Amino acid sequence: MKVLIVGSGGREHAIAWAVAKNPKVEKIYCAPGNAGIAEFAECVPIGAMEFEKLAEFAENEKVDLSIIGMDDPLCGGIVDVFEAKGLRVFGPRKNAAILEGSKAFSKELMKKYNIPTAKYETVHSAEEAREYLRSVRFPIVLKADGLALGKGVLICNTPEEAEQGVVEIMEDKKFGSAGDQMVIEEFMTGREVSVLSFCDGKTILPMTSAQDHKRAGDNDTGLNTGGMGTFSPSPFYTEEVDQFCRENIYQRTVDAMRAEGRPFVGIIFFGLMITADGPKVLEYNCRFGDPEAQVVIPRMKNDMVEVMEACVDGKLDTVELEFEDNAAVCVVLASEGYPVSYKKGFPIEGLENFRGASDKFVFHAGTKFDENGRIVTNGGRVLGVTALGKTLVEARANAYKASDLVTFENKYKRNDIGKAIDEA
Ligand code: AMP
Ligand code: GLY
């Protein structure tokens, strides 16, 4: 069996690692991939947004299953292009990926189908926004409708901050056409949890929970990033919370999408806030989280390819998902200055310390081979070091110990990943 993975981050490295464990898989391609993924896959220099070229490649190489890791190609309709050529592909079609691609769409869906979420209003112009903002209580949350690299969400404490946000999103178009519409949403407090799930259009199987750390600095200071580290499971995601979400959020979302004529096949990522009034949806994503994948996938007992094929074939009801009764922590090693500006091209030392290990992994996010064949830094987030442990406390100690095994100039990490474990 031949598999093509589309993407180039730590998430795609974790997916490739899991796919490579299937004995039927004889060849993995990754487009465009990175230096770590190259250990399992032949990296193909085609960009993730070059749908026609990618589909042509999959056709020519007789790829049996393509897996789309990233949000941009999914929201842009890559799955529709593959399916039009009769190719088997894991991920939602464009009309279902809108669950992540438009916050106005997802909020309306949740309202219509009674899925718990923050109260909100969608506005279509700066004037409409200002009018509505006169009636709200602060803090308030402004969200650009479309994809904005995770940066289109502004938490505003005062009317002045909100005015500045309206100007940025809707007048200056800082996030481009993502700001043509805007969601203005009630500010929620509580614990944030990420739950990823497999879906086949009808059935949904939630995976184990995880928690991300989005801010760049220790103690949740600094700018928002793609994610600086994760742990799994979340001690705040109790049996009771899980039960509530299964009854009121997960299946209801899949049923709602089907009822709207947008059956969702692929991964739904539920960003949840566990509030005093119960769990509520913060956001949906239409793919694995990064770096959530780097702690969830290593704990999964099932074969990744088998589960994904069951999704594509509409047979997820025959699968039982199982996770190890352990814990994982991922510490992201970034380039100093991320997410604003940073230097890259520095050689990375110590990667060999992870070779053959089954309790610690180094997932590459932004790396490449230089002209001398050395692995060098090539992005803001460079590596994700994941370690397992019997408990979260043990996994965290192991992850920090392992994070010292790799070095590069400019290396930056948060020192408090998993601090919330001590508050549980
Ligand atoms: P999102 O991209 O929608 O997940 O938003 C990014 C981050 O902003 C989330 O992970 C939360 O930390 C925060 N956030 C988004 N919406 C809200 C809200 N309604 N109340 C409080 N925090 C929020
Ligand atoms: N780690 C958050 C995300 O992948 O969107």
Question: Can you give a write-up of this model?
Answer:
This protein is an alpha+beta fold. The chain folds into 4 domains: 92 residues, Rossmann fold (3-Layer(aba) Sandwich), CATH 3.40.50; 68 residues, Dna Ligase, domain 1; 128 residues, 2-Layer Sandwich (D-amino Acid Aminotransferase, Chain A, domain 1); 97 residues, Phosphoribosylglycinamide synthetase, C-terminal domain (Glycinamide Ribonucleotide Synthetase, Chain A, domain 4, Alpha-Beta Complex), CATH 3.90.600. It contains 12 helices and 22 strands. Strands 10, 11, 14, 15, 16, 17, 18, 21 and 22 form a 9-stranded antiparallel β-sheet that branches. It has a 5-stranded parallel β-sheet with strand order 3-2-1-4-5, with helices on both faces. The chain has a 4-stranded antiparallel β-sheet with strand order 6-9-7-8, sandwiched between helices. α7 packs antiparallel against α8. The model has no long low-confidence stretch (mean pLDDT 97). Bound molecules: adenosine monophosphate (AMP) and glycine (GLY).
Q: DSSP strand (E) fraction?
A: 25-35%
Radius of gyration: 21 Å
Low-confidence stretches: none
How many separate helices?
12
CATH superfamily of the largest domain, called what? ATP-grasp fold, B domain
What's the level 1 CATH class of the largest domain? Answer: Alpha Beta
Looking at the overall shape, the CATH architecture of the largest domain is 2-Layer Sandwich
The SS-based structural class is alpha+beta
Query: What small molecules accompany the polymer chains?
Result: adenosine monophosphate, glycine
